[in-house]
Amino acid sequence: MNQFNSSRFIVDAMLVKLGKFMRIIGLDTEIVDNSIADDLVIQQVIEKDRVLVTMDKLLYKRMQKKEQETIFLDTDILEAQLIHVLKSENIAFLIEDIDNPISYDSRCSLCNSLLKTMVKKEVKGKVPETTYTSFEDFWGCQNETCGKIYWMGSHWRGIRKTITSINDSFSENR
Ligand SMILES: [Zn+2]
Questions:
Q1: pLDDT tens digit string along 117-141?
Q2: Ligand 1 centre and the CA of 143: distance in Å?
Q3: Beta strand pairing status for 138-141 and 51-54?
Q4: What is the pLDDT of residue 1?
Q5: Other Cβ atoms closer than 10 A to 158
Q6: Protein residues within 5 Å, CB atom, of ion ligand 1
Q7: Would you kindly state where each structural domain of the chain is located, as residue ranges?
Q8: What is the pTM of this model?
Q9: Which class does domain 8-88 fall in?
């Protein structure tokens, strides 16, 4: 169960990095295809009824005219972007068990599907041999056509640090 509210987001193509991180922390987030025109973006957002997150002022203004909830970001610093999105939606952010992605409904950063815990032997042959021998815990994307497998390798340190820092910035206001 997600501890956060049920906001669903869509980020524009300039915010892929943010979108992927939003998925990791359990926010249902679509990422707009970078080849589509603004008119199509607007149409998609309205049809899907998701909150658009954008750094494009013109697009933001157009969305306001349509009275569609939109979050405008004027920073390209990931942490600041995340905090702005969470506060805009009044999300009382706290991830207690960072190393247990299932506990906060972490999503696949590639396709936005939920993750599932995998038994070690299920990933044999699907991850590099050195990874298989070095790690005990694996998670997989529930979407079988994606099938991405995750483990807490070196990149996880950066993710953990960012989540800790967002936790801290919210706990200061508690
Ligand atoms: Zn996936």
A1: 999 999 999 999 999 999 999 999 9
A2: 6
A3: unpaired
A4: 39
A5: 10
A6: 108, 110-111, 113, 141, 143, 146, 148
A7: 8-88, 101-151
A8: 0.94
A9: alpha beta
